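Milestone 3.1: sequence recovery, worked example.
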């Protein structure tokens, strides 16, 4: 991942490169390989780079078009960038790098704001058009990459993380009490809110245009739609899901750095790892964690899957004494969260980074395919309500209470 940050003044003040650099420096953990700052008039862009494609200095950001009138700071990957690059070159655009980043600036030149509809990938970026004196903030369709902003009377601040915004002088820090109440009720913070009243998330599938005069326009450019695809057999649905999943995994293997996979042994990460192993020339490296608690430990499943696909498997054990890292984990989380798995994922990511730079994982599949036990329990609850009360509170309660915690 990379880190993006920046600002635009509405009162005519020139952007201070030192302020943009301070904002950008808070994101050094996201991009340890390089950094860059750009200012022009009221606008400033900053970037921290984790080099993935085109590791040369030509990939440095913020990145400009041919005449320097369009610049972008970008976090993510555009998987169809080779096809877009060829189309843009045929239209007369000149490229100085082999990065997917440069497709954004030339794509914007060629197609304007509509270029976002051509990007197949995950991304968050800020683009400055010097001729139009206009800042464009964009977040990908599913919100894989984060992007926060604070729209204030005299300026707009943005960053991959809230801490970048707070690094700006006089950044607003007043609390959103309603957001806190939502967190206490839901155990998570629903977008676009954050715990800070004047810091918001750009939501998935949204973009925001801010002019130097202070006018701001936020628009949803994409939303998820479900349409019945006609009558198909179960086999046909399974085949299409498999084909789309394999294509998705294959597209995400474009990289100039070593690749691996988080493997828990569940159906989601196992499927991703299997498709990765099918589409990689080198041996896949897989990574998992285990707890030493049999009722929660999935280590045996992860090892079995790794062995079946011929992967080089690495394991990390998480123990109670590792709670000493909680302050650092909280700092990276930025906002309150009730997801205790972040402790394990923190250690998994830290150990994985010793071996590879990029990983794929199965995150999100349980939400998409209703795989959580919580979802299954919804249907079981309906069945239980149909039973007589004395059955529910008698033999059935005793049976449930005898089961393992997990």
């Amino acid at each position: 991942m990379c880190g993006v940050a920046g600002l635009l003044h509405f009162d005519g003040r020139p952007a201070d490169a030192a302020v943009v650099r301070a904002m950008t420096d808070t994101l050094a953990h996201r991009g340890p390989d390089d950094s860059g700052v750009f200012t022009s008039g009221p606008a400033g862009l900053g970037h921290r780079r984790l080099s993935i494609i085109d590791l040369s200095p030509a990939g440095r950001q913020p990145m400009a078009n041919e005449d320097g009138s369009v610049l972008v700071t970008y976090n993510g990957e555009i998987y169809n960038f080779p096809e877009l690059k060829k189309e843009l070159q045929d239209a007369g655009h000149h490229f100085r790098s082999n990065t997917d980043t440069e497709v954004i600036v030339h794509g914007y030149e060629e197609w304007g704001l509509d270029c976002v509809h051509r990007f197949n990938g995950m991304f968050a970026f800020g683009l400055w058009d010097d001729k139009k004196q206009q800042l464009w903030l964009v977040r990908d369709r599913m919100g894989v990459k984060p992007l926060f902003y604070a729209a204030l009377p005299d300026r707009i601040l943005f960053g991959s993380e809230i801490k970048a915004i707070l690094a700006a002088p006089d950044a607003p820090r007043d609390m959103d009490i309603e957001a806190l109440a939502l967190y206490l009720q839901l155990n998570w913070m629903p977008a676009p809110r954050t715990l800070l009243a004047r810091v918001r998330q750009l939501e998935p599938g949204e973009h925001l245009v801010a002019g130097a005069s202070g006018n701001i326009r936020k628009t949803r450019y994409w939303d998820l739609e479900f349409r019945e695809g006609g009558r198909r057999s179960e086999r046909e649905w399974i085949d299409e899901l498999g084909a789309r999943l394999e294509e998705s995994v294959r597209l995400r293997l474009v990289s100039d750095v070593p690749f691996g996979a988080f493997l828990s042994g569940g159906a989601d990460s196992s499927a991703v790892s299997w498709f990765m192993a099918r589409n990689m020339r080198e041996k896949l490296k897989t990574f998992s964690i285990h707890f030493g608690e049999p009722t929660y430990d999935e280590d045996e499943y992860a090892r079995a899957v790794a062995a079946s696909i011929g992967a080089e498997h690495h394991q990390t054990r998480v123990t109670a004494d590792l709670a000493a890292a909680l302050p650092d984990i909280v700092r990276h989380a930025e906002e309150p969260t009730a997801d205790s798995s972040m402790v394990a994922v923190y250690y998994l990511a830290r150990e994985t980074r010793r071996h590879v730079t990029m990983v794929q994982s199965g995150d999100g599949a349980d939400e998409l395919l209703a795989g959580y036990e919580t979802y299954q329990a919804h249907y079981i609850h309906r069945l239980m309500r149909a039973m007589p009360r004395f059955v529910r509170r008698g033999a059935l309660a005793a049976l449930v209470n005898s089961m393992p915690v997990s």
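The CA atoms of residues 116 and 213 lie 24 Å apart. The chain has a mean pLDDT of 90.
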